[in-house]
Amino acid sequence: MTSLRQKYVSPQIRRTITQYLIDNSEFQTVSTLDAIHVVRKRVPQCELSDHELGDLIAKSAIDVGFDVSFDGDGSHL
């Protein structure tokens, strides 16, 4: 399995995650499941697995001070 560090993450995916965090800045906790759903909707060509995407969202959220709700890997979306 290829690690996320070895995979290319497009600027569009990073911008979408950043925008999601900005849009939800009034909340202290970020839902990985909700964020995965938003990224998949806005960037349907995203090739990251839900697990990889959830990890990227969580890292991005933690880096800017959010708590993270690991409420699913999105596999049922």
Gist of the model:
With 77 residues, the protein is mostly helical. Helix content is 49%, strand content 8%.
Describe it for me?
- With 77 residues, the chain is mainly alpha-helical.
- It is built from three helices and two strands; from the N terminus they run αβααβ.
- Strands 1-2 form a two-stranded parallel sheet.
- Helix 1 crosses helix 2 (32-42) and helix 2 packs across helix 3 (50-63).
- The longest helix is centred in the C-terminal third of the chain and has 14 residues, at 50-63.
- The protein is globular.
- The model has no long low-confidence stretch (mean pLDDT 88).
Let me know the number of strands. Answer: 2
Multimer state: single chain
- Helix percent reads 40-55%
Distance between the ends:
22 Å
Mean pLDDT over all positions: 88
Which geometry do the CA atoms define? globular
Structural class call reads mainly alpha
Name the poorly predicted regions: none
Name the features.
globular; 2 strands; two-stranded parallel sheet; single chain; mainly alpha; 77 residues; 3 helices
List strands and helices in order, with pairings.
Elements: H1 11-23, E1 29-31, H2 32-42, H3 50-63, E2 67-69
Parallel strand pairs: 1-2
Helix pairs in contact: 1-2, 2-3
